[in-house]
Every structure is written in structure tokens, then in C-alpha cells.
Amino acid sequence: MTRPTRRTPRRLVHAASFAMLRGAAYATGSTVMTILLLWLVSR
């Protein structure tokens, strides 16, 4: 078995993609919540 020395491990790639997805989901969720709050207030 050959050890990948220069390639990035798959765990790091998965963790980075998961963190990016979580950050994007959090950003969209907060934006939707603020829009909903503004819409409810301005009604």
C-alpha cells in the first residue's frame, strides 16, 4: 500500500466541504429569517 504524501486526505476535503455547506445553510437560514421578520413587521 502506498501512502498519499502530497495529496490532501479525503477526511480534510470532506470536513471542508461539510463546513462550507453548513456555513452556506446557516447564512441562507439567517437571511430567510430576517426577511420573514421584516415582512411580518412591515405588514
Short description:
With 43 residues, the protein is mainly alpha-helical. The chain has one helix and no strands. The chain crosses the membrane at residues 12-41.
Description:
By secondary structure, this protein is mostly helical. The model has no long low-confidence stretch (mean pLDDT 89). It contains one helix and no strands.
SSE order and pairing:
Blueprint: H1 10-42
Overall pLDDT metric: 89
SS elements, strand count: 0
How many helices? The count is: 1
Shape call: rod-shaped
Largest sheet: none
End-to-end gap: 65 Å
Radius of gyration: 19 Å
Low-confidence stretches: none
Helix and strand composition category: mainly alpha
Strand content range: under 5%
Could you state the order of secondary-structure elements as H and E? H
Helix content: over 70%
List keywords for this structure.
43 residues, mainly alpha, rod-shaped, transmembrane, transmembrane helix, membrane
